[in-house]
Specification:
homodimer, mainly alpha, Arc Repressor Mutant, subunit A, 6 helices, DNA-binding
Chain lengths: ~110, ~110
DNA sequence: CACCATTACTACAGCGTGTAGAAATCGACG
DNA sequence: CGTCGATTTCTACACGCTGTAGTAATGGTG
């Protein structure tokens, strides 16, 4: 269900890559785009509502962190997509048919264990 | 790119499951929801614009077919999601860590060959 | 308590989707 | 060939989501 808009996605990227918690001002500064802080705050609130972001309210500039890592989130998306799949195995078969050999090898390794 | 709304998705489901081409009236009849044909036509046109549906214009009730099978489409979605992943292999690792054993086995088989 | 930084609330435009009426079109039948 | 009914196109509008920000409230610090 978590369809993000462009700005929302940019903000999530910062939180994911930055590693740690950021204030609204931090976020605004790191986005190159010269936005009002209120804009960033709005976006952060919406991301909080979508459970993508957790907010530390006890500090004065509130600090925001991503609820899940980028990889965790991506896996969630994958599962969401697969949930609509009908025949999961058919999809996976087709999927691995199209991935580069290096990744196929990596998968084989991961599955062997 | 292909984010579908609820009705759009229902229509695609019909086209996918029905197997063959349907007219707008066919679609309207199969949706339980008592919609105007024009509504269905609008949705079909939008799906055509999104390249989800092909339309046979030469017959009088135009006939509509899904451009890709449900599985093909799902694979496209998967790749789209993976495209935003950052570290694809990390995501895949996490992903296969969470799938049921039966599917893991199936994957192993598929990768072996 | 007053002031500045921060946050909350409110607003609005633009776009996608669901929904459908009115107008145009097309083929068949007389 | 003209008419009529079915089909398609065009136009419209409401609603929700996103980007964007102003204004009002709030909270700590001197």
């Amino acid at each position: 269900m978590a369809t993000l808009g462009g700005l929302e996605r940019s903000v999530m990227s910062l939180l994911w890559d930055g590693g740690e918690s950021l204030s609204a001002n931090d976020v605004r500064d790191r986005l190159g785009e010269d936005l009002a802080v209120t804009t960033v705050l709005t976006v952060l609130s919406r991301l909080e509502r979508k459970d993508m972001v957790r907010r530390e309210r006890s500090t004065r500039p509130h600090r925001y962190t991503a609820v899940a890592s980028r990889e965790e989130h991506t896996v969630e998306m994958l599962n969401e997509v697969l949930g609509t799949a009908g025949d999961r195995e058919a999809v996976l078969a087709r999927f691995i048919g199209g991935i580069p050999d290096s990744e196929a090898a990596a998968l084989r390794r991961l599955l062997q264990k």
